């Protein structure tokens, strides 16, 4: 190809490289062991944060108090984000539906009944068991479909209330 430009080789010296080549520096196996320890510590911290957020959210949903819905949004968002980071796909999806419903309660004034809150709690407790390895959510489609319908029902009450108020 006549118009093709030639590439250029650029040397990049990272902190790891500088540490590895200095006398008494870290060797590759030492660096790998240190990174493994660091990753294990971060993973344990993320799992602890997920457990804390889910436990608090479960307690709120099982003993539904609309006054605590804003705090529930925070816990649901934290669960959704950290579970996504940890690769817990089912827990991520269930937390997302919980967040959407709680957000409608807080922002739009939707009414969520105690039995509906208990449904989200049961789904969260099930998803927390971590039976879904990988990203294949097909076996759990009925659960996710039911949660989507429940979320739509709760959000739909806002529209029905606004329509009745007119």
Oligomer: single chain
Structural class: mainly alpha
Count of discrete alpha- or pi-helical segments spanning 4 or more residues: 6
Instruction: State the helical fraction.
Output: over 70%
Report the C-alpha radius of gyration, rounded: 24 Å
Strand % is under 5%
How much is the average pLDDT? 86
- Major sheet: none
Written overview of the protein:
The chain is an all-alpha fold and 166 residues long. The chain has a single domain (42-165), classed as Four Helix Bundle (Hemerythrin (Met), subunit A). 72% of the residues lie in helices and 0% in strands. It has six helices and no strands. Helix 3 (69-86) packs antiparallel against helix 4 (89-108), helix 4 packs antiparallel against helix 5 and helix 4 runs parallel beside helix 6 (141-165).
Summarize the structure.
By secondary structure, the protein is an all-alpha fold. It has helices at residues 15-21, 28-62, 69-86, 89-108, 114-128, 141-165.
Question: Layout of SSEs?
Answer:
Layout lengths: L14 H7 L6 H35 L6 H18 L2 H20 L5 H15 L12 H25 L1
Which key phrases capture this entry?
elongated, 166 residues, mainly alpha, 72% helix, Four Helix Bundle (Hemerythrin (Met), subunit A)
């Amino acid at each position: 190809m006549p118009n093709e430009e030639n590439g250029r080789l650029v040397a990049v010296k990272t902190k790891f490289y500088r540490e590895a080549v200095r006398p008494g520096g870290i060797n590759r196996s030492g660096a790998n062991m240190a990174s493994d320890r660091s990753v294990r510590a971060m993973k344990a911290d993320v799992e602890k944060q997920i457990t804390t957020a889910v436990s608090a959210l479960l307690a709120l949903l099982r003993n539904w108090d609309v006054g605590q819905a804003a705090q529930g949004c925070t816990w649901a968002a934290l669960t959704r984000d950290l579970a996504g980071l940890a690769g817990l796909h089912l827990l991520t999806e269930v937390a997302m539906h919980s967040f959407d419903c709680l957000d409608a309660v807080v922002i739009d004034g939707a009414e969520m009944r105690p039995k509906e809150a208990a449904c989200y709690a049961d789904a969260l407790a099930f998803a927390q068991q971590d039976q879904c390895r990988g990203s294949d959510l097909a076996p759990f489609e009925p659960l996710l479909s039911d949660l989507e319908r429940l979320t739509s029902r709760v959000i739909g009450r806002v529209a029905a209330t606004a329509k009745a108020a007119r």
